[in-house]
TrEMBL record, chains A, B:
Its EC number is 4.4.1.14. It comes from the Eukaryota. Pfam families: Aminotran_1_2 (PF00155). GO terms for biological process: ethylene biosynthetic process. It catalyses: S-adenosyl-L-methionine = 1-aminocyclopropane-1-carboxylate + S-methyl-5'-thioadenosine + H(+). Keywords: Ethylene biosynthesis, Lyase, Pyridoxal phosphate, S-adenosyl-L-methionine. This is 1-aminocyclopropane-1-carboxylate synthase.
Amino acid sequence: MAGSSAEQLLSRIAAGDGHGEISSYFDGWKAYDMNPFDLRHNRDGVIQMGLAENQLSLDLIEQWSVDHPEASICTAQGAPQFRRIANFQDYHGLPEFREAMAKFMGQVRGGKVTFDPDRVVMCGGATGAQDTLAFCLADPGDAYLVPTPYYPAFDRDCCWRSGVKLLPIECHSSNNFTLTREALVSAYDGARRQGVRVRGILITNPSNPLGTTMDRGTLAMLAAFATERRVHLICDEIYAGSVFAKPGFVSIAEVIERGDAPGCNRDLVHIAYSLSKDFGLPGFRVGIVYSYNDDVVACARKMSSFGLVSSQTQHFLAMMLADAEFMARFLAESARRLAARHDRFVAGLREVGIACLPGNAGLFSWMDLRGMLREKTHDAELELWRVIVHRVKLNVSPGTSFHCNEPGWFRVCYANMDDDTMEVALDRIRRFVRQHQHSKAKAERWAATRPLRLSLPRRGATTASHLAISSPLALLSPQSPMVHAS
Amino acid sequence: MAGSSAEQLLSRIAAGDGHGEISSYFDGWKAYDMNPFDLRHNRDGVIQMGLAENQLSLDLIEQWSVDHPEASICTAQGAPQFRRIANFQDYHGLPEFREAMAKFMGQVRGGKVTFDPDRVVMCGGATGAQDTLAFCLADPGDAYLVPTPYYPAFDRDCCWRSGVKLLPIECHSSNNFTLTREALVSAYDGARRQGVRVRGILITNPSNPLGTTMDRGTLAMLAAFATERRVHLICDEIYAGSVFAKPGFVSIAEVIERGDAPGCNRDLVHIAYSLSKDFGLPGFRVGIVYSYNDDVVACARKMSSFGLVSSQTQHFLAMMLADAEFMARFLAESARRLAARHDRFVAGLREVGIACLPGNAGLFSWMDLRGMLREKTHDAELELWRVIVHRVKLNVSPGTSFHCNEPGWFRVCYANMDDDTMEVALDRIRRFVRQHQHSKAKAERWAATRPLRLSLPRRGATTASHLAISSPLALLSPQSPMVHAS
């Protein structure tokens, strides 16, 4: 592939460009992979808190599948369907799958909106859905505006194949990272000044990594702005079914269908959905593009051939999603379990004075460790992060990898483990924070006793006492009890 | 998507450009869809012979799945694996799947070569495999050389996303459509003269639509040419396990591993494989890229995220493919059934003097109807084809849609139906041919009695007797018994 664009891409990927989940996190994932925590067999290992995976309610799905052998073509009860399903290759997808998916997409949004099965387009996971949309909506070099912090793998999903540029809309903790029209206009104008053609605004609602939902007003503002400037509004709603507290979820579908954004051009609105998060089935590779634009539906449908969902999986899910009674029970129970997990985790952090952004959705909290930074820089954030990964042995994700402009925020996933593991993780964080507070207080007392010593040690001549203040690294010696925390 | 390349593509697709399976065949598929044959309920319907689908041995797989409930995560026996499999999202694929696939790829090639699991890259079907390879190997506007006739949907697989151009290497019936070095050099030089950069040679071996395998000498010639000119050799071997007669199948893997192409640059050789044809599982969307080039493996692997196979399906297939005893039995029995079907079909055609290209592989025959054309043109071929679709009610595929340069060839699929349906199809063809022969003989006798009438009727003033000679359309009146053949 000498000289091809793929070769250039590969070098960029290898250099860690454009794929946070692989690049920025690489160190943390490596640490986890080399020494994964196990409650019984490796209590000294790294706990994986960098994976937005939902394991809390898989037992319900597992039980449903055992109770419904007819839903699998690989059982005596389901085998009569084997031939039809195995041979099925229509890129429109199984009609019963699209029907059930459309119905479920309404159910997961509280029945407040309906979805048309003929607008449901199948893709290979949310990755495939974003890639397909980017291909349909933009040319290489065109840009999407994306509010920060945002899901790092959008760089892969929207850029690797389609060559879309992602330009940040800067959001801030001062208003809980709410997207404002001012920030949007500023990003849009900035792109135009650079001569970049803006083709879309890409939002995740509920937000990954914030764990919050977007309010109706913001959504209406976005729809109005998109209409006004004739840019697309791409709404990633893959956590729609993972909202566990008030305020409830408002889908863009609801906003445009209920007239919250008068005059809004529906042709510019597109939803990406998936079963990877709400159901914890990322392996099944179910991505959905739902567009209000007929041309996009037609084009995306044709492109489906590149990323169809296995018909074995379509068949199974069609039957499960069509079981409305089970789905209602699943959604309620999943929300209940997510809420319990979230509340316990956040309360556990609060015990040592660590706050999280108030959240009501998702599989993670947006943890505020700004107070623990040596200085307010991204370098200091990464320094703290390395300590958390290698010494505290928690693979969390630094805000930097989500393109967050304020250092000191971390995404911590809590739904990919059992209760006991989560308690171990909480314990490790709390001990780490307490030790940090203790060292800091001691250092401050020490500094107070020597008010005249103002000069800092030279680089390379760092003293132990300086390290104790300047870097959290120094908080933990290799023999630190934290290393063996459990 | 105003103004985007996707919009342009969509117009091209809508206009029928670049996708034979959809465009050229559209008429035939529509005829089939509107009136599908059914042995019991619609004996007057159109028989689908345009679908290269293997239904002959699915009963074996179905039985295996029922006998091995542990292979499905949706059974009581397999459910303990549900959580692990449903959550699995590593783009490398399940290790056991890659292991089993590599082993099976050797088995299907008679154990003469071995495949390295670390070079097995998963894609969404053969479509995804070709798309991934095209992305890795070429830039938009670069070309692949493809021997004719070739699989029409390569236009989709290689062009729609990656923008590769396909340039024909003209092959001819005079040597049974064998690819010669002269034809290859001529196509290569022609492309260079046009200023097009040739990046690869794309072959299907066994060939779709020819139903033949490529000999060792031709493969060695291709490998040498690729090395000499530094172009890639992409070998689509998706029918590797559907070879049912001598000469046996020779994989490019065998040629390069056994030294049949001395000095060959392995970095230029790539294989596409799939389970859609050999197993009749197109719905499962299993495509494989196997490359001897480390960079291509690395890049294709990264791109896997866009077209992963459902982990439910990976798990099932990993267990089935690893059952070497079953696989051996399946391959032998499948070949036996394919041979029986092929032999019966070809013999049935021979009864009325219709020949097929001698074939030893695939799910179809390349039927020679040149003698039935009004004239040696593609228009005449399509005219005959329309008669076959609408009056004879067989949806076969005209050579034109395979970019065949010689009018009068048709691909006829015979493995997507049961024995009885195939007999009905054979019967229809034979009656059609006999009627044609009868009318032709009569017309010739009539012409012989009027030797002096040389002028042809004017356009628009066509007489019935002229039509009887000039167009097969006239052979069948709307009340023709052929319409109700069964």
